[in-house]
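EI: anyone free to look at a 136-residue chain?
SC: sure, send it
EI:
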Amino acid sequence: MRLEFSLALLGSLTACGGSLLYTSKSTSLSTPDDVYQCVQAQLKTMRYNRAQYDIDTRWFVGQKVDTTSRVSSGTFRRTMDRIDARVQPDASGATTLEVKVQTFNEFATAAGFQSDERPASDGVKRDAAALAAACK
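SC: here you go
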């Protein structure tokens, strides 16, 4: 009975908390290194700045300021879109591109800058779809 209650509670908690993160996966017949190079080139073309990367694991994070977003707050600075891309070979020999996107509002507070995550913007979702299509 405890197990049933725990599973029901877990199910209700995950149903209540919507995800702010948007994730997509695609596969390619190209080599992992070619797809990783494509990811870097496409994000640069889309005007994303490199925030983090790891060549060995083929991981790349790009950030871009969303100039169309506005928040009515005296402490609001900007909205940042973030694309987190990982390229890995899978068991079938194909290459998997996993793209996670997030959007943050940045505020200036007395303690410094504070980033608050919000639902991923339509613009960053479009950029993720374009990235996946270009790097197939």
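EI: Residues 2-16 form the longest helix (15 residues).
SC: 👍
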